[in-house]
Amino acid sequence: MTRSQSTIHGPILELRKLTRTFGALTAVNAIDLDIAEGEFFTIVGPSGSGKTTMLRMLAGMEQATSGDILLRGKRINDVPANRRPTCMVFQSLALFPHRTVGQNIEFPMKIRGVDPAKRKERALQLMRQLRLPENYYGKNVTKCSGGERQRVALARALAYDPEILFFDEPLSAIDYKLRKTLERELKDIHRETGKTFVYITHSLEEAMVMSDRIGVMQAGRLIQVGTPNQIYSTPTNRFVSEFIGDVNVIPVHIGPNGKLISDDFAAEFSVPKIPVGFTGGHLVVRPEFVRFLGSGDASENRLTGRVYNEYALGSRIQYQVRVGEAVFIVEKLRQQAYTGGLDDEVAIGWSGADSILVSD
Amino acid sequence: MEAKQTNWRNGLVWTWSLAVVAFLYLPSVCLLLASLTDSRYFTFPITKWGLSWWAKTFNSLEIHALFKTSISIALCVTVISVVIALFGALAFARYEWKGRSIYQKIVLLPIFFPQSVLGLALLLWFNALGLDLSWKSAVFAHLVWIVPVVTLVISIQVYSFDPALEEAAYDLGATRWQVFREVTLPVLFPGIFSGMLFAFLLSWGNFPLSLFTTGADTTIPEYLYAKMVAGYTPGVPVLGTVNTFGAAFLLLGGYGLILWWRRSRIGDSKE
Amino acid sequence: MAMLRQPGPRNAIPLMLLMLVGFAAPLLAVIGFSLVPARSFSLWQMPTLENYAGVFSGTNYISFVYSLVFAALTVIVLAVVCYPVALGLVRVFGKWSMFMSLLFTIPLFVSENVRLYGWVLFFIKNGVLLGTLKTIGIEPESWLFTQSIILFGMVYVYLPFMLFPMTLGISMVPKETRDAAFDLGATRWQVFREVDLPLSMPGITIGFLLSFVLAVGAIAEAKVLGGQRIIPVTHDIEIAFTYAQNWPMGSALSVLLMLVVGVLVLVVLRRFDLDTILGKK
Asked: Domain named ABC transporter: which ranges (chain A) (predicted)?
């Protein structure tokens, strides 16, 4: 059951044919998107996909070449960043090195002319909320650890009391373990504050953990928008399916008999239904849906090859199976591990219903 | 074995470098010695030690006037050059713009130019414009050379400045002026301070530009030169020593201040 | 006009105006004066090349050659003197590095003729050196007023201008790259030739250029230490402007000097990306 909050609230942010070009390069190409009030929306894409440019346009730091940005139905293209009720947490965090933790958090309130006692009260309250010790109020930000700096940056953004928070890959420079903790904390803060979060990252894994919905960007276009589950289980094209992680993406075409033929594996594959007009594309098979077949086991799709190597991935083990020159990957839970030796001949198979056919 | 070899090599580098330092400061020591004699001409070993030339120099009205001229030029140059160079450095290192790389090279040109020729060129130019030469024209001449130097000094600080700091402040509601006052200026301050020191000291010690552009006014380096070429007095080593120690004092003091500052900023302020 | 609304060009305006009025215009004035008949003091006359012809038919070209040769020699001596020091500043002095750099910076701010005068007091008859030698009974000739002491003085004055760019260059060589080269079997000399030298070349080249250009314009060394044993081109220029009252001749000499310097600077600087050298992250 997915909680897509877009069904509960109207959109807070609407993008209409939003475009940004730099000379001959179209960094963001006619994007249409609605982001719902209170939603945690993540834009995922490789570097150079235009996601940062898009976020900077939403925050008001980059001018749109054409198209509209609507905030609660009002066009805000020409409202400068300092007058938009939105706030960004930067990749570098952009904490003011000449200010203490407290002064950093109070900055937006100072700019707004809030009196010092109230400022301090609110800053301490935010520090409590973000689990920063109270005695950090007078600490120099440059002396804080990575995780602490992260929290200060978030506290400073929240002190602005924005309606939407933007995040520009703030966790990309943080080591794995701390990143996992901070991802969860960020999602908790999202729940506590009820604000709309728009997050960009190049890691789909990170997006999956936190987001209500994910948009996948490639070469300036939003190529798929959906819940984490939708993105994971039904990628609409080859790019999205490969972006998710280790999957088998097999080039296929329609043979004279109307079946899918793979030249690489010199085999025929079957799926429940081939869409009308499909002539060629890729068959996506997730490694966890593939089984090692015993001698008597039947399978809708079947290949024989040799186990070339195995890789332990935490709770699962991944196997590289070589079928002729071609490589196929299989993943099993540790308790269902493959028991044969390397270079042994094995048969593998999967159900056609577990594979996805994409047309590009 | 390897460590021993490295130690030996490092020792050699240290020895050589200290010898170069000694080489750099030997003339200053000679000046100091020459200023501490009471006789009219300098002979070594010194037979009559004394401070009488220091007293004479400091009481001389002529020297007071020279000081006033030199200080006026140096202070004007410092203020004007830091303002121009701060903006110049932002254009040099902070913003991406078409023509920036040409601009960077134009900024360097006066530094890579013989100063005596630049001084003469300015003399010709002032003359062609029909300007009267005085310490004010020397201020302008100094600026042509010192502004580029100060721009480079501040640029080095600007390069390490994260532009996202300005964007963040702007995003948090600050106006352009508030961004400049609250973020840009304080973060760049160490660079601006070094630039001020450089501007003051370079102007104070400049000879080739002053020579051609001060007109009837005389700066201390010009006076010293005149006295060196004709009419030595022990006032020359006195002033030379004052200049050297003054520069050392300002520079060491200034960098001491920056270090102290940085340390006090890093040390947590008490609640 | 639209361009001036961008922050980059807008911030560059004051400096560019200064360069226009204080650098480009005076140089144009010099070029203008070099084209008017000898001994005139006004720009508005029939242009002529007689001053340039005069430079090559007279003896002025000799001082030109002297200046170039002495500048080249200065650069060579400085390269040898400064390299170990620059190496020390980057890799050996550690926490003393900052203090050592300051020691090398301070003399920059003392007028060069004052510092050269210290050498006069050192080398002069009955000065610090000869006076000391006299007490132990040795009385050699003074080194002052010879050709070689002029070179000595130039090396002394321009040392920081070689040292600091060189230091910057050497600091651009990452330690890991050197370690990798050692690890791949290179000898110390090979590491120097294959890694250190090419990677620190931008800084070293700028040091060469800067000290050469400044040394070509040197004047005080010959006057203060050399007793005019050598007449550098800058001295000829000054004479033309002052005693000889021949501005066009002085201008023609200046233009030739500017040409040498300008071509050299432009050719060398063209090759460099200043952002990388000055430490853009």
From this structure: 13-244
